Amino acid sequence: MTTTAPVSTALSTADHLAHALADPSTVWPGGRPAGGRAWPQSLAGGASGIALLHIERARTGHGDWDTAHNWLVTALHGDISAAANANLYFGAPALAFIAHRAASASSRYLRVLERLDTATLTVTRNRLAAAHQRITRAERPPMEEFDLIQGLSGLGVYHLSRHPHHEITRDVLAYLVRLTEPTPDPAGLPPWWMNVAPTGAPHADYPGGHGNLGLAHGIGSTLSVLSKALLGGPKVPGMADAVERICAWTDHWRQGDETSPWWPGQITMQQTTDNHVHPDLRPRPSWCYGVSGTARAQQLAGLALGDPARVQAAENAILAALRDPLQLSKLPEIGLCHGMAGLLHAAWRMAAETDSPEITAEVPHLTDRLITALDRSDHDPELLDGAAGAALALHTVGTGRAPAPHWDTFLALA
Question: Which stretch of DSSP H or E encloses residue 266?
């Protein structure tokens, strides 16, 4: 993709951020924070996420492998979870994800990748067995069954990247197809409807649960994974039908007009009853629930189905956000999940996919906006909402490339 973006400024800012994140003892002077997203094996907030930044820089010739190795060692420190809480963002699968990227450029990491991959295969098989049992019982899915961050869409992302023609990859894709197969429902709810709130737990504000369109926790990630598989993965029966079923539901809830379409982040039972989404509920253009994620999933679906009108609608959607000062003002944060870096990288990825000159022309403005926001204050070092993620987005704009295996696969954007 050619771009008039301030390439040197984007790259120099990414370099500056990466240098500040070079030494784990400097990033966490008092030792690693305890718990949650800061655990070493957390891709979202821990050492494995920062390792991904340095691995990508080393793979593209803009960083050194010693720094990447130090962060990998930090991420691999301690007991590695392959239990029920392991997923693309935590534990053995998260570490296998970053090790795969390192091993693509250095044979030094092949043995550790093999061990992590074996653990991830076990995690995936256990999760698949539980998911199929749930479907057989005709129960609604819990969020952690199929979403990107905790569930099988995320594990599918890993396997499709690591070994696309492995039996486990076909098994995950077959499950995602089964997830979308219609089930008898008097309210006409889709089979991925959840009896919980967007937090993943029951809540009085969501008495009938919700349907989730987002890439982080909803059917958007499933749409992205199945579409990527259709474009270049194993041939699993029913994938095209599954993509079409998801698209039919998202089309029903698409809002706006042809020049500025948008999708709600979630649908409640009341909205289903009313068949209406209030315009004020338009989500901000973030990756997790907004157009940064939903437009990319729609673009991939359009390409997979050979549907140029869907591709155009997706590109119109992200263009509308990029060109609207009000929408941009809703993303003051810097991060990949909730902030400008996510919108910037989704725009870059979408423009690169179809060589869109219109989206490409908007990338420099958002790049400048992100750099300005980074200059205003210090930021959390983490990957998902902090400096490491912003650095990766700027590094990609600055280098104009994101070689396979793509770092942004964990966002279901590639």
Answer: strand 266-268
